[in-house]
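Hi team, as promised in this morning's meeting, here are the two structures we talked about. I've kept the exact order from the run log so nobody has to guess. The first one is mostly here for context; it's the second one we should focus on when we meet again. Sequence first, then the predicted structure tokens.
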Amino acid sequence: MIQNPGDQLPQLPTTVVGSYSVPEWLERLKTEYYQRRISATHLAEIHEVAIKAAVKDQERAGIDIVSDGELRRDNDIDYFLARIPGVKIGQRAKSDYYDYYDAAVTAPLPEDDKSELGLAGDFEFTRALTDRPVKFSFTGPFSLSRRIAGDAYANQADLVLALARRLNLEARSLSDAGARFLQIDEPFLAGYPEQAALAVEAVNIVTEGVPATWALHVCYGNRYARPSWEGHYDFLFPAVLAARVDQLVLEFARKGLEDLRLIKEYAWPSALGLGVIDVKSPVVETPELVASRIRRALDYVEPGRLIVNPDCGLRHLTPEVARRKLRAMVAGAAIVRAELTPSLTRPSPASGEPDCQPSGDSHG
């Protein structure tokens, strides 16, 4: 683990959770590919154009740690399952690229297959576009297992742990390629709260021996800008305390800030990625609303352990709304940063943006 992310980051660093806005034209072209109307080479060129624009948008908004926007991925599952040796996908044509493949494992995953999934190459492309730190995220083994059928394993836990070992190999390749900020996404875990201990065991297999600043993101789903489940993060504790990660990235803007109590109640020892932007609403938060959410979190987490981010990925927001929300987030973080270190903090380049519209928040 790399506990110190680097001196180049300011206090209360801003980042994204992973995905960026998918414009309608990219949705259409991806579906064209899955219907075999355009080539993989053509789609790869389109992806590169979209990723360059996403990185530039994040830079212009003032984001400290950027991502590739996950714009190569059709959804949070298929991009990975299609690349894992031993996972069978019979039909790869889709009517909608968000749809999930029917995937199956008919024999134990090969433990001796060292072929890479291609994620390191994805990271290297993005790193070459920017001089800012790059976060690279991938879906965790528990969530991947929920979309796999078959009776190759005696129980679901064995499949989860086998996927974790596969992802550990990929994480090592990412680290070798220079990735220093890695994140495991477990979007399905909220739907199976009784499986938290298993998911944490698998997370620790993924991170084993990989020198990086590791984050674990757990949300309540973001399928077509709607949550898949509702509830509170109590189910994560105390199991998540055993996770060998440096950050826990949670959603708070949509759900409210009540679950912040768990961070203090269970003495969460590492950093908290605080969701301050509701990605399921097109209403753009004001910088002051963002700042109020950060101030509330500081009652539970000291500034050196707080990272500022949206609740989840920005995939389902329009590009303009995504840009405005990121600018508001950066400006809100700058407000609180200035309050914490007034003599050392420079004004945020995004703090003067006049386009952030008021947003109500009963939890602010």
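And here is the second protein, the one for discussion:
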Amino acid sequence: MDDKALILLHGELKSPPLSEAARIVAGRLLRQVQEGVMLSMPYSRPMPSIGPRVHELRINDESVTWRVIYRIDPDVILVADVFAKKTQETPEQVMKNCKRRFSLYDSD
């Protein structure tokens, strides 16, 4: 089976803001997702409030916890956002932006 392509719809996985160690972890985890591995807690959790097949990758960094919102499609992994998680709940604006980005991708 071929690995799925990885497409960033928004955000970057580079330094700064992610530390080198966090970038390595993010890259390793996203690579596993590309290879078909279904990650679970503590690394990833489903985000049905954003949409089907949408998950939140959790990456602990030096002083912040990063979140990567991604969707698993049959042929591609779509990254909709990368942000620093500062509260227990995912910010409403992040959820709206991710829904919009996935919708725009689907309409192309």
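Starting points for discussion:
The beta strands are 5-8, 44-46, 54-60, 65-72, 76-85.
The longest strand covers residues 76-85.
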